[in-house]
Amino acid sequence: MGFSDVLKKSFVQATAESMSRADAIAALAAACLIAVYIFFIYRVITRKAFYNKNFNISLVALALITTAIILSIQSSVVISLGMVGALSIVRFRTAVKEPMDLVFLFWSISVGIICGAGLFEIAVFSSLLITFAILALDRFPSTKEPAILIVDSSDTDSEERIMETLQQYSVHSKVKSRNMDVESLNMVIEVRVKDGAECIREISRLDGVKNVSMVSQEGASTF
């Protein structure tokens, strides 16, 4: 038996004996508990936004699947090579629209990898630290999100009066688009107003103004 055969045999044996059946069950149990914890944290974080229950359930399943994959890779070199080949042909085409969903997705995968490696303390401590960071930063005050003001006027010379009135209520205003023809003027303005209802009423009283509407613009802030 040559040196390469001895090295190969010792490597395969060390890999196969690296984790017992009890350790594997403990890893899956720990991953399941932490994944359920992530499930409830995601529900709390998304209380003010659109909540996708199927995505939340998939976070739990993803942590368990990742743990099982890591345990299988550790048990055999042949399985690990086959797993790499199988996963290399998988293509995910579902786009993650919310940045926070992407954070939870990576969090769930990381928990599966860490628990699969048997580092339960790191998985628990990192999960608690991530929770504290998310909740603390979520309560951190931010600037007021801008709104979109849409004004339709039959007077093409009413823009100056509209902007003067808007300055009384808005700390920030910027004309995003301006459409004009012979008999009408349409303006789209990005604003940050203190009292949106009163601002709309004042602008609607101007001569020539036919319609005024304000739409909130979530997800973006102007400093």
Explain what this protein looks like in three dimensions.
There is one protein chain. The chain has 223 residues and is an alpha+beta fold. The chain is 57% helix and 16% strand. The protein has 8 helices and 4 strands; from the N terminus they run ααααααβαββαβ. Strands 2-3-1-4 form a 4-stranded antiparallel beta sheet, covered by helices on one side. α3 runs antiparallel to α4 (77-87). It starts with a helix and ends in a 7-residue tail after the last strand. The mean pLDDT is 77.
Helix content: 55-70%
Q: Count of DSSP helices?
A: 8
Numbering strands along the chain, what is their spatial order in the largest sheet? 2-3-1-4
Q: Say how many strands there are.
A: 4
Secondary structure layout plus pairing:
Blueprint: H1 3-16, H2 21-45, H3 53-75, H4 77-87, H5 99-116, H6 120-138, E1 147-153, H7 159-167, E2 170-180, E3 185-193, H8 196-204, E4 209-216
Which features does this protein show?
single chain, four-stranded antiparallel β-sheet, alpha+beta, 223 residues
Summarize the structure.
The protein is of the alpha+beta class. Helix content is 57%, strand content 16%.
